[in-house]
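User: Modeling request: complex.
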Amino acid sequence: MNDLPLNLDQETLVAYVDKELPPAQAAAVEAALMQNAVARETVRQLRLSGAAAAHAFDGVLNEPVPDRLLLAAGVGGVPPASRRPRWPMRRLLPLAASLAALAIGLVGGYELRLIQADQVEGYVPAAAVVDPLNTAYESTLMPALDSGAEGQAFAYTGTAEDHGSIKLGRRFTTGFGAECREFARHETRGSSTQENAGIACRGADQSWNVMLLPGQ
Amino acid sequence: MADATFDQELVAALPKLRRFAFGLAGSIDEGDDLVQAACERALARRDQYKPGTRLVSWMYRIVQTVWIDRLRHRRRGPAAMDPTALAELPGGDAAVEMESRLALAEVRRAIAGLTPEQRTVLLLISVEGVAYREAAEILQLPIGTVMSRLARARLALGEALEQPRSGSEPKGSNANVIKLR
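Assistant: Request completed. Predicted assembly structure:
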């Protein structure tokens, strides 16, 4: 087999290094390399650069995929288990993706698989509780979302002991053009106080779809 | 492929597509722009995807096409790319030692110095681990062309990595100290 006519050109050598040659040809190259110092040096350099390149961009693999890409891929963001939100606004993002997908689904009229609200652990539907405080909250939130500035706070009250405030966060547009806003809610009911982060995205009819996240 | 599978595979491919696009564009942000545009294009043309083929390969092609389109649109060649951008590192990973960060940044900078054609082949094969035959199909090139571009890219990279670092480094007796092994 060693008497195969061999051309130790760069293409053959890189294929040898990358194990892309058929076994017989690889063995022939190996044998020929014993006699050829120049080719051995080429192989050394091809190995070095291959090994160096292999992991040069791996850092990005350890980062969470941005929600704008999940949205662009047409799917509501599913938060990987490794995500550890550090503050309320942060934890909004994966749900922002699914909520925005809802808004887009209404706009585009094409079918999108969404995360069902009840599949999200600890999900609190915004309108599930009907009471005076909640009514006040909703009637304060909608105009605030429409025209409030970033960082602006809005107070609301239910009964004498129950009151709350909404602080608006940033505005953003999803990859598909849905308009969304973040907000934080601080609410006191009697002696208990709760903080929630929320997200709202406009649907096709310009109304806000609101999702409130579990409190801390 | 059923739509659900298509969507799942597309999402599953995102990390690899980001890595590929990071290498092409030179920064994570610009890479993400490419991936976003590629996903939007893919969804608009999902009927063109051939079931039974690897979705990630189809996506590599779209990412590469979007990138080439943008390069042409900007009418700028590879020299327009800022090689220092390739030093960008995903922040906050304390586990990564500074030394290896510097070494990886150096490799990225050297890869940024390759021609777009060489860089694409190198990223697909040596970073993404795509087989030669598949890379040829993705890029719609003869396999011989892929191999010669790859060989030239790898030799140029090997040479660059063994050169003393240039540019901001002070020229002096210690210039040779900074060498990648």
